[in-house]
Amino acid sequence: MSWIEQTLLFSPLDYGGIALLIAAWLWIGWRIENASPQKPSVGQLMDDYRRDWMKEMVTRQPRMFDAQVVGTMRQGSTFFASTTMIAIGGGLALLGNTDRLAGVAKDLALGAAPALVWEVKILIILLFLANAFLKYVWAHRLFGYCAVLMAAVPNDPDEPGAYPRAAQAAEICVTAARSFNRGLRATYFALAAVTWMLGPEALVLGTLITLAMLYRREFASHSRAVLLNTGT
Fold first, then answer.
1. CA-CA distance, 210 to 214, in Å (whole number)?
2. Which of 13, 49, 62, 190 is the most buried (most CB within 10 A)?
3. Domain extents for the chain?
4. pLDDT digits over 58-78, tens only?
5. How far, in whole angstroms, is CA 84 from its chain's centroid?
């Protein structure tokens, strides 16, 4: 089968759905991380709280609480990285059994598409999952860097290097959290890509629902209102 014949296996709506999926994933990530100061996202608000946290850490004795918080965040990134790796393994196993998958889809009245179509659909999901895995792993490592920097902050707040070192730890923590959030978004859109198994219409609907959910959580959720309420 030539590449022209292979491209004809997908309808214009299929191509439009994939374009929408990728565009939505890139746009919402950019929108969350580059929101205006007048309407910050939850991610940006949490970045400010992380910086405040490191300032408070300088004068907190002992610092066991701070160490526990960082440890919890590392455990979270480890859990998601491990779960994503399992999902990737399952997807790779499906790639080796696309003929059987095509038969199951035919039995479920999902269409009699050739195995190549299912392989492409699974591959799209795997690409999002691979991106998420890499983000989770990098977040885990950055949280480790943050822990080391926190340990290097002098116990005496009057030391000249105390607050500058705490600021360094804060920025590493912010970067780690940003990588973790990117991994979460890639996971969300991997789930949206799963709907392509049901057809291009389902893919478009799943993408729009995922986009709306992420936008609401970052810009119109109750948690955002709580974070904005400083009590002043």
1. 6
2. 190
3. 38-227
4. 998 888 999 999 999 999 999
5. 11
